[in-house]
């Protein structure tokens, strides 16, 4: 997606990547592809598993690989930056397999390499609470990265899997950044200085992620944008402006995190009602689902982002970081 100074869409040599799209599943892919195409979205991180066990995660990976192998599906599982670009050129949705938590590894750091070979190229260290790898963002103690969590970071670096600190506690995330020899990302999180939620990142952590060459993906979840009711797209862009002013626009991307969860799923994931309202969830005016993603570029441009900076936020920045992590 290329956005000129006027905010219009033009050209086909740039890319729109959404780094958290849990609503996109193997069984909904055909309709999802239409939504993504309508929004100008070329690539997504698809959540394979988060709190689920190893067997469930393997089954989900198998379902995605079945999609990849079926020429009737308009999507391909990708494991390199070049494959993302090639999928876009072919008119296909590029799917990056993503763990939102390391519980699917079952406490075995050796499975990082196994899942990497199966195509899981991004792993979030924790979900919201205490896990074997470290503390999540809603864990009061925030004890930091565990010894096992440090081993996971090492294995992720070894197998060129992106270390994702979304949902991690601040101390856990900072420990992971210090430990990692490759860029670290926060696939979907906003700036705590703009909206004071534990799911958002303090400036210290944003700065540390940027210093690795990493990227923070803007999250469209209502209570991570503002504490005051239904948010607007302008309010989401407030977070982009803050991060860009703090560390540079080259460290801002799109996370979005659109999800349509049921009451049962809400209870399964154990969300804290202080930070996550019970469903149905609402999304920003002007950005209410994936087909509205094309609305982001013009608002960024209106807030002073240059055309090149807009293209970076929409996908180029994550593509650069992933290329650095994944190599060739």
Q: Short description, anyone?
A:
With 328 residues, the chain is α/β, with parallel strands linked by helices. The chain contains twelve helices and eleven strands.
Describe the secondary-structure layout.
Layout: E1 2-3, E2 9-10, E3 17-20, H1 29-39, E4 43-49, H2 54-69, E5 75-77, H3 81-89, E6 93-100, H4 111-117, E7 120-124, H5 147-158, E8 162-164, H6 170-179, E9 184-185, H7 203-211, E10 216-219, H8 222-225, H9 233-247, E11 252-256, H10 263-269, H11 296-302, H12 307-326
Organism: Actinoallomurus vinaceus
Pfam families: Peptidase_M19
Protein name: Dipeptidase
Can you describe this structure?
It is a single chain. Strands 3, 4, 5, 6, 7, 8, 9, 10 and 11 form a nine-stranded parallel β-sheet that branches. The chain has a two-stranded antiparallel sheet with strand order 1-2. α11 (296-302) packs across α12. The chain contains twelve helices and eleven strands. It has one domain (2-326): Metal-dependent hydrolases (TIM Barrel). With 328 residues, the chain is an alpha/beta fold. The relative contact order is 0.15. It has helices at residues 29-39, 54-69, 81-89, 111-117, 147-158, 170-179, 203-211, 222-225, 233-247, 263-269, 296-302, 307-326, and strands spanning 2-3, 9-10, 17-20, 43-49, 75-77, 93-100, 120-124, 162-164, 184-185, 216-219, 252-256. α4 (111-117) links the parallel β6 and β7.
């Amino acid at each position: 997606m290329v956005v000129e100074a006027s905010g219009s869409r033009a050209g086909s040599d740039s890319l729109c990547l959404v780094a958290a799209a849990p609503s996109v599943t193997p069984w909904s892919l055909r309709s999802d592809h239409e939504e993504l195409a309508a929004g100008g979205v070329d690539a997504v991180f698809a959540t394979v598993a988060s709190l689920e066990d190893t067997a469930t995660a393997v089954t989900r990976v198998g379902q995605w690989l079945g999609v990849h192998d079926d020429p009737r599906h308009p999507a391909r599982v990708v494991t390199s930056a070049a494959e993302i670009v090639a999928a876009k050129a072919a008119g296909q949705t590029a799917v990056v397999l993503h763990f939102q938590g390391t519980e699917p590894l079952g406490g075995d750091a050796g499975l990082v390499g196994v899942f990497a070979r199966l195509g899981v190229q991004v792993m979030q260290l924790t979900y919201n609470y205490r896990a074997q790898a470290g503390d999540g963002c809603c864990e009061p103690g925030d004890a930091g990265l565990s010894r096992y969590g440090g081993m996971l970071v090492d294995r992720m670096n070894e197998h060129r899997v992106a270390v994702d600190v979304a949902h991690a506690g601040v101390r856990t995330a900072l420990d992971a950044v210090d430990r990692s020899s490759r860029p670290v990302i926060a696939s979907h999180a906003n700036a705590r200085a703009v909206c004071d939620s534990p799911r958002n990142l303090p400036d210290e952590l944003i700065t540390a992620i940027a210093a690795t060459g990493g990227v923070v993906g803007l999250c469209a979840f209502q209570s991570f944008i503002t504490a005051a009711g239904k948010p607007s797209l302008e309010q989401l862009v407030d977070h982009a402006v803050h991060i860009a002013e703090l560390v540079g626009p080259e460290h801002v991307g799109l996370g979005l995190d659109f999800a349509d969860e049921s009451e049962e799923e809400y209870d399964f994931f154990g969300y804290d009602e202080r930070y996550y309202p019970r469903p149905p969830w609402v999304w920003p005016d002007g950005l209410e689902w994936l087909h509205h993603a094309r609305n982001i570029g013009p608002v960024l441009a209106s807030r002073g982002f240059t055309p090149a900076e807009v293209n970076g936020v929409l996908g180029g920045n994550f593509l650069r970081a992933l290329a650095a992590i994944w190599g060739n």
